[in-house]
Amino acid sequence: MRGVMFTKPDQPLVIEDFQMPPCGVCHSDLHVIKGELPFASPCILGHEITGEIVEHGPLTDSRIMQRCPIGSHVVGAFIMPCGNCSFCSKGQDDLCEDFFAYNRAKGTLYDGETRLFLRSNGKPVYMYSMGGLAEYCVIPVHGVTVLPDTLPYTESAILGCAVFTAYGAMVHAAEMRGGDSVAVIGIGGVGSRSSSSIVSLLFLNWPGRLDSKILVACMVTIARAFGASATIAVDISDEKLMKAKDVGATHTVNALKEDAVEKIKEITGGAGVDIAIEALGKPQTFQQCTQSVRDGGKAVMIGLADSRARGEIDINRLVRRQVKVIGSYGARARQDLPKIVKLAETGAFNLSSAVSKIYNFEEADKAYKDLSQGSIIGRAVISIT
């Protein structure tokens, strides 16, 4: 079996003899590669997958075997709920205790063990989510749902993170309602193209980065479905903003040419938006997000940052004007992933056009270098064969 392995920050990814379904390329992986998010190493990255079920664990419930029989195609969510902890018991899969205590903290599954080992010496290799850049993945069944034949197999890999993240932000964190106005902020006034690494998580980074095309479509589609009165895209590229308009953004703001906060307030009659979403994970855009919402509005943060980053907020305004600052990491796999697949089936997300480049297995390191340099248009997938 082979896999693409990360060893040390800023070192090339290497292919080790570990056997592969497609796996999306995401900026969250890039944060690990750059050492901005601490994670156990060596590890197998990759957390956006579609695949075929080839084996069930020895204790698998018969009902699960019927729901996901061997041979079925599935899509996986990057948050893999255990189904048993206090949060999962309340339906809050996105806060699963075991996922964060074991997988994100230690790179293992929920028995404290990885399922990946180097064939040459037996040493453990850790797992970022399910370790999607390996030929075979072991994933808790609560983290997958069956993928219908009507959806493209390779391109559907991005449903489990890109769309999953956007859905969680809009439905659970923002609790969007009909008539709400929405702004999505990813690149601030500084306009550093090289800094826009985590725009993969949402809306703005569209021709020059990896993940945003599907997320633009996702956020605008969800906003439209919930009856948004206005959807405002903020970016530093006119070309990107035109793309955002193409998928339904009602307004665009070029943050290089005008003050994003002031323009958002102008568009909304001076009040600010009901919901602002920060997708970049930078202190400046964090502040812009909180300043862009109306009194009583919601500032939703989904952009992962360097672990040393800190955001500032006007405390008095937060208290007096009841501004709500909400973090959102993803959706809830058991209840949301089937709904996301259904949305994709209706044509809400054009998956085939969203994935602009497919790399082969041996090009995995190049894929992440291209991602870091901003040279991927749309979103990329690594085909593991």
UniProtKB/TrEMBL annotation:
InterPro entries found in the cross-reference section: ADH-like_C, ADH-like_N, ER, GroES-like_sf, NAD(P)-bd_dom_sf
Alphabetically ordered keywords of this record: Metal-binding, Oxidoreductase, Zinc
Cofactors that this protein relies on: Zn(2+)
Organism: Chenopodium quinoa
CDD domains in the cross-refs: Zn_ADH10
Ranges of residues in domain Enoyl reductase (ER): 57-382
Family of the protein in this entry: Belongs to the zinc-containing alcohol dehydrogenase family.
GO molecular function, one term: oxidoreductase activity
PANTHER family: GROES-LIKE ZINC-BINDING ALCOHOL DEHYDROGENASE FAMILY PROTEIN, NAD-DEPENDENT ALCOHOL DEHYDROGENASE
Gene Ontology CC, one term: mitochondrion
Biological-process GO terms, alphabetical: response to alcohol
This protein's record includes keyword Acetylation: no
UniProt-listed SUPFAM superfamilies: GroES-like, NAD(P)-binding Rossmann-fold domains
Name of the protein: Enoyl reductase (ER) domain-containing protein
Pfam families cross-referenced by the UniProt entry: ADH_N, ADH_zinc_N
